[in-house]
Amino acid sequence: MRIAMWSGPRNLSTAMMYSFGNRADVHVVDEPFYGPYLRLTGLAHPMAEEIMASRPESAEEVEQSLIGPIPDGRPHAYHKHMCQHMIPGVPRDFMADCVNVFLLRHPARVVASFSKGYENPTAADIGFAAQSELYDHVVSLGLTPYVIDSADIRTDPEGKLRALCDAIGLSFDPAMLAWPAGGHARDGVWAPHWYASVHRSTGFAGPEGPLPDLDGAAADLAREAMPHYEKMRAHGLI
Predict the structure, then answer these.
(1) pLDDT value at 118 more than 90
(2) In sequence order, what are the residues at sequence separation of 6 or more whose Cβ sits closer than 8 angstroms to the Cβ of residue 131?
(3) Is 143 helix (H, G, I), strand (E, B) or coil?
(4) 87, 98, 186, 238 - which has most CB atoms within 10 Å?
(5) How far apart are CA 230 and CA 227, in angstroms?
(6) Residues 36-61 pLDDT 10s
(7) Cα separation of 127 and 85, whole Å?
(8) How would DSSP label each residue in 63-107?
(9) Rounded distance between C-alpha atoms, residue 223 and residue 180, angstroms
(10) Residues near 48 by Cβ (< 8 Å), separated by ≥ 6?
């Protein structure tokens, strides 16, 4: 089984990768299209040169790696994808060969967290519209998309991970509930900039507090994303 996890930034996506990566039967891939995305857009992301150097030059080469043999003879692969990376020029044919799961987080939390590491983010940077469009694309393929909210996972990790595994036809493994501190061998080279807090973790952190107070452009950005979030949330695993 190939699991494509579709997320935006600052969305529990790395913790979920660690959760699945702690299984002995799963090979994980961290944001495989990040390098081609930066080449195609020319965006000045933190560590952009290192990221591009660490990934194949073409998106087509990335796609072939995703549908090729799973390394180490493992039966399952877990691809952590950022929805905003799926711009024109990035192929989607591989999605038909995957179980596609969509990971949500409330827009106010995403905007507040992402803004700490990237100045003046835009709607394209946080990926909610792209996530909604990718959900529709999976439906158009005649496949079932699965949706889970990071808030639900943090509130009930075992229950929600069991529900997700049941939904996609994967046996639950208790190893998914905890992982060693310090990161994963498959982390992208950008990990020093973005993954400090999750590197200190050994499991899901528990429920978050009240929503952050946003104002100005940040509040506008969160409001713009809300319809996409609410659409996806309505299809979530509850």
Answers:
(1) no
(2) 6, 7, 8, 83, 102, 104, 228, 232
(3) coil
(4) 98
(5) 5
(6) 999 999 998 889 999 999 999 899 99
(7) 8
(8) HHHHHSPPGGG-SEEEEEEEGGG--TTS--GGGGGSEEEEEE--H
(9) 37
(10) 38
